[in-house]
């Protein structure tokens, strides 16, 4: 057993953290306040190879392992969980192509993302279907020499800026899971209508919208796998993406812990730094314990994924534990900062708002527990 | 065109420095090493020259411990072609370092056209190596440069002087130039760059290989210790006009006998 990161992974983390500190943290608050999409920061991160880590070397990508990807994602989320949502959404959208695409599809859809800075969206959730992803209503009909996509998607990250959509729909709602199919759609296709940018509690720099597909014509060759294989592709995508999303919560937690250590040594109450008070020490100890435990779960879930081993249960542990503990840690961070913590002048209230979303997206904490129980009791 | 960049590896600016057990140097076991920030400007300038002259070769040279080669690997990940490392203790003096750098440059067999360095290292702040090295190589040198324009065999450099004024020099190559902040914005080492750096050559020499011996030491460290903690200041109440004369006499007396500054 070896818990150490390789020298290469240490260098990767170093670069990602340097980027987070120099390029993300100085802008995080301002972008959050105004809800500005971090276009240029996104581009810079892409130039350094920090984005689209799932693309294999064969198609011009970095060919990073899942463990490498979660190391990068933790560091970028340390910079800003909201911006990292935009960054991560690219991987989330490209993973179904990596997992379910043919060689030709990978060449056609993945390579442009390594040659130019491009943005992608993963379109799964609908206004009426979140946790119940199997109940998708968006239809993919056979139009002869093309597919016709119609329906409505909701909470689509990066939608307003995307160069590529991966859309989940059904070829026949009566087939339930067996009808679900994944298809690559050009966002410029006629018939696509974007909703307004959602005004969210946190992750405000990330662009989130509804997308309506009005009989959108899509080339036949854009279907990933065979019609009806979408559910299997989506499930495999989750095995990769849950550790990634968990690492985002972990990055936010690590930042909150670091800020609290620093602040509690500076803030004087009753004549001593508050770090000398046991009430504060216990909260900080709890944070440290949770950060470490979450990191072990995240790394194990990613490592299992790299081994090609079944990681569904561990990935759910990682996602639920990392996001729930991030919520607790960032809430305590606001508590430690006291009145200052509640003010936007200080960085911790944003962390608390950002933490909440990670308990919701990519499978709520409750859905994760259903998955865990199903795995444990099967 | 052969460009050499001399880099130093220094403790990260956030490191808490403590003397080691016997006070012979600082505790290095827990230090996170980084490339000296001024040297990053030197590396970036070399890479900018290489971008404009694809045939140019950029070699980074460092004298120091081999345990951690962070600075050289970073420079190669940023885009330098190769590296030379001279193994030495981390508290060598400026003269020995300059002599070792000269020896290492000569060992490569490449005739330098431009040598770039940072104007100073942020650990010991000696500000000597660039000038000593230039003297040893019999090259012209300009330090504290904030502007660089290469045209043929001439470099036009701007250097900062007191009061924020700039001096402009035209120097013929070969030349040694020491960079200041403001010269450029150093690039990040990209992830593909980090991968490529692993395959780039790094030559390694001992001090003896490059002609440096103990006899070259001009400065020996007698000990390292933290500065004494500053005692609390003294306050003198001079609000009562009748007592001001006494208070002033008292202050002046203490400045003479205790603070010993007058």
Overview of the molecule:
The complex is a heterodimer of chains A (378) and B (262). With 378 residues, chain A is of the alpha+beta class. Chain A is built from ten helices and ten strands. Chain A has helices at residues 7-34, 39-47, 66-79, 81-100, 103-115, 230-266, 278-306, 312-337, 348-358, 365-377; strands spanning 120-123, 139-142, 146-157, 164-170, 180-185, 192-194, 208-219, 223-224, 268-269, 272-273. The longest helix of chain A is centred in the middle third of the chain and has 37 residues, at 230-266. Chain A is globular. With 262 residues, chain B is an alpha/beta fold. Chain B has helices at 37-52, 70-78, 94-107, 129-137, 191-197, 244-257; strands at 2-6, 9-11, 33-35, 57-64, 82-87, 114-118, 141-151, 154-160, 166-172, 175-179, 202-206. Chain B has a nine-stranded mixed sheet with strand order 9-8-7-10-6-1-4-5-11, with helices on both faces. The longest helix of chain B is centred in the first third of the chain and has 16 residues, at 37-52.
At a glance:
The complex is a heterodimer of chains A (378) and B (262). With 378 residues, chain A is α+β, with helices and mostly antiparallel strands.
SSE string of chain B, helix = H, strand = E? EEEHEHEHEHEEEEHEH
Estimate the strand proportion of chain A.
Answer: 5-15%
CATH architecture of the largest domain in chain B: 3-Layer(aba) Sandwich
CATH superfamily of the largest domain in chain B: HUPs
Q: Total number of helical segments of chain B? A: 6
Arrangement of strands in the largest sheet of chain A: 1-4-5-8
Helix content of chain A: 40-55%
**Gap between N and C termini of chain B, in Å?**
57 Å
CATH topology of the largest domain in chain B: Rossmann fold
Please tell me the overall pLDDT of chain A: 96
Q: Which range best describes the helical content of chain B: under 10%, 10-25%, 25-40%, 40-55%, 55-70% or over 70%? A: 25-40%
Output mean pLDDT of chain B.
93
- Determine the N-to-C terminus distance of chain A: 28 Å
Shape type of chain A: globular
Main pleated sheet of chain B: 9 strands, mixed
Q: How many helical stretches of chain A?
A: 10
* Name of the CATH homologous superfamily of the largest domain in chain A: Butyryl-CoA Dehydrogenase, subunit A, domain 3
- Assign the structural class of chain A, choosing from mainly alpha, mainly beta, alpha/beta, alpha+beta, or little secondary structure: alpha+beta
